[in-house]
User: Fold this.
Amino acid sequence: MGAIELPICISCNRPIIPGEKGVKMPCPNCGEISFWRCEKCRELVNPYKCPKCGFMGP
Assistant:
């Protein structure tokens, strides 16, 4: 049995563990890719940048 690949937060680059209230969302600008944000970065309104189109936000 292989290792489980955890989603990585786009803001802090930390793995999002099972049970944490992270969210997967499409880029609000291009919608072409989806990324994850951890609960802490969402609460702190930490910025993120879409690797596809460069959109920055919280």
